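Standup notes
- DV: blocked on the single-chain target, sequence here:
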Amino acid sequence: MTKRLVKPIIVAVLACAARAVISRYRPRVVMVTGSVGKTSTKDAVAAALSERFFVRKSEKSFNSEFGVPFTILGVGNPWANPIAWLSVIKKFFVLMLLPNHYPNLLVLEVGADKPGDLQRILRIARPDAVVVTHLPEIPVHVEFYASPEAVREEEFAPAYALTPGAPLIVCSDNSYALEMASRVPVRLITYGLADANVRLSGIGFYEKEGGIVGMRAVVRTDGEEAELIVKGSVGKTQLLPAAAAIATAAAFDISLADAIAALGGYEPPAGRGRLFRGVHESVIIDDSYNSSPVALEEALATLASFPGRGKRIAVLGDMLELGRYSVAEHERMGKLVAQSASDLVTVGIRARGIAEAAHSAGLPDTNLHSFTDASEASAFLLPHIHEGDIILAKGSQNNIRLERVVAALLANPADRTRLVRQDRQWQKR
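- DV (later): unblocked, structure below
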């Protein structure tokens, strides 16, 4: 009861503080929205603009009514630490009362868990440019909305807040985003594999010293072309954030060559298709940050196309917050697993639907194994991994925690620090 009463007060105070800072320093604001790929896109956009602007970006996935003010204030998440909350207050007064070298451009990831979330964020800051990543048919968090269309409308809300002629960067491969973009009087800039202002082609794995270390593609825009390389992660979706960043850079009159150079140090964040060496000379594709139908579909396609002669093992957890679409979407993923993987390990009650559908689609019983939690799955997998096996780990966050499976299968335990949710607060959960 106390938490329910206190939380709205804290949210309101943080919003007022963040608005005051925005009003004083007047930075330009780039908002990144969509159902999937927001954090990777936010990081790539910040990298591409960093040579031209003094940029601050959202840390990790700080995209909520708490996270956005934390980013604007330039503080970390104080969690339940009263001393850390005092430092937030101190930072606000320093920003308001003393001279500061404040960023002139903010790249804010914004997200919605329930109706009205983005409208509350838009009352804190208004965008000068908006990047829409992907608005799928069955979006994340649809459980809390009247329909998938309602989720897409909410996630597109930052675009409606743009002034006429402001840049709106949209993926050309997403029909929903394109249709919605046609409603607003903006400067539309598209990116993607289809016909786009920033177009990717020749997509493939990037190899170095005989091993796959990332993705590569040719990027074309305004009659120019260049090679785009994204290191550390695999999957077509790992190239799209960089393409979105190049499109955003173009909106700020940054050349293709300069954007590519600025992206040289960009790597996708933890838990997004990251590559690791696993036990017994296996390969791990760590996509454990979260899961949704559209993201899992792409991850399975990556697993199927990854070179190698070993087993392709899909370790999949529940996809949460799908509401009435949950059963059908888990079943649909199971059919895709039967086409993409040789073995399936599931974690969670809902993911058993993936296993049942995969079996119905032809995956043998002997290659299917279901568990209630990550520790059980890890214990089973360790003796069953062999040289050359490719392991994909993907599941929703919070209760599923498939990064624990990845940690158990790492060849080098020191790599654990590069996994998602390794800070002390998460480890307590």
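- Follow-up: The CA atoms of residues 135 and 296 lie 15 Å apart.
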